[in-house]
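Long-time lurker, first post. I've been practising inverse folding by hand and with some scripts of my own, and I keep getting stuck on stretches where the structure tokens seem ambiguous. Below is the full token string for one chain I'm working on. Before anyone asks, I'm not after the true native sequence, just a reasonable design that respects the backbone. If someone could post their per-position residues I'd love to compare against what I wrote down in my notebook.
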């Protein structure tokens, strides 16, 4: 099964890290990504640009409206993600629990839904 690990961060916590701590966190994160790739678990991972760069879009009654930045007011923001493959939720939890940045933020783990392929004839 595929699982999305959403990385939630408090920017104040991240800004409080020293440059050496940030470099070490980057090194540990890249090493864990490589390990997960080699074990066949990591499908895709990426940090995200700062929330201020976001654009929230809505379509209501056929009309598009946009708002700069994220819609939710929160101390935490979505800072990145990992898309993993795991046998079950227990294994996915074990994998997510070792993501290095979890020491500074939180990881929200969700299973991806199976979507039937309606475009293919059976």
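-- Answer (accepted) --
I ran through it position by position. Result:
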């Amino acid at each position: 099964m595929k699982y999305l690990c959403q990385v939630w961060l408090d920017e104040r916590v991240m800004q409080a890290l020293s440059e050496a701590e940030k470099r070490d966190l980057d090194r540990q994160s890249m090493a864990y990504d490589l390990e997960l790739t080699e074990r066949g678990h990591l499908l895709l991972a990426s940090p995200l640009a700062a929330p201020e760069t976001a654009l929230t879009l809505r379509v209501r009654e056929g009309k598009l409206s946009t708002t700069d930045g994220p819609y939710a007011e929160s101390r935490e923001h979505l800072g990145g993600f990992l898309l993993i493959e795991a046998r079950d939720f227990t294994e996915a939890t074990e994998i997510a629990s070792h993501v290095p940045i979890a020491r500074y933020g939180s990881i929200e783990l969700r299973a991806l839904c199976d979507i039937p392929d309606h475009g293919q004839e059976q």
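A couple of notes from the structure itself: The beta strands are 2-10, 42-47, 55-60, 63-68, 76-85, 106-111. The domain at 2-49+77-111 is CATH 3.30.70.1060 (Alpha-Beta Plaits). Happy to go over any region you disagree with.
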